[in-house]
Amino acid sequence: MGFLLRREEVLDVEQLQRMLDDSPVRAAQAILMAAKEGVIDAQALLGQILLDGRGIERDEALALRWFRIAAKGGHLMARNMAGRCLEQGWGCAVDERAAAREYRLAAEAGLDWGQYNYANLLATGRGVAEDRAQALVFYRLAAEQGHAKSMNLVGRYLEDGQFCPRDLDAAVEWYRRSAQGGDFRGQFSYAAVLADRAQTDEALDWLRKALAGGNLKFLQTAQKTLAAANDPQIRAMADAYRQRAASLS
Predict the structure, then answer these.
(1) Measured between alpha carbons, how far is 67 from 116 in angstroms, rounded to an integer?
(2) d(CA 190, CA 180)
């Protein structure tokens, strides 16, 4: 059965986003129509639903094509997502150099996710020459825009005194903001600081939040750290992390 879509329904991207929650297939039809009409936000959104297979058959190569079309029209998140496809090999061969180029363009235009992703490549020397000091510059730019993952990494640089003066108070503040912003690694970092300060109850609260949101790799690494903790309540969390990791593997 087809759907009769009003023109404003086709072109209103916020409405399309809401439609995705209510009727993914109908939303996908409207998004495709709007993308073909040249609506840049819809083109980027079409790339995302093609990548996710949401309301439409999953097609990574076609997703990349639409991300590139939207990026050419000036959509920064689409450019960042083209970089993600190139970095991960979604719909194309892995090309970290090309991914770095897309991230850099998005980063220099001010996109926080572009800054974060470009910093990750700089920090690890993938697709670009390794430059951890420059990575910190881009992490800071993203963190200052409220990017929670970048906040945690800025905190780590400051705590370790890497490529900047060591500043534990500033590190803790970035960890706190990252944790409150919802990053599970930031939550774990902030919990570690609180545990060191014997603020055990608050530390446990943040460890539970990190446990709920963490991915498999994080949970496996965090479990080992928790198992070596001095505080028995903190150490007991290791088993919860191990069980959660097992459920995800």
Answers:
(1) 19
(2) 10
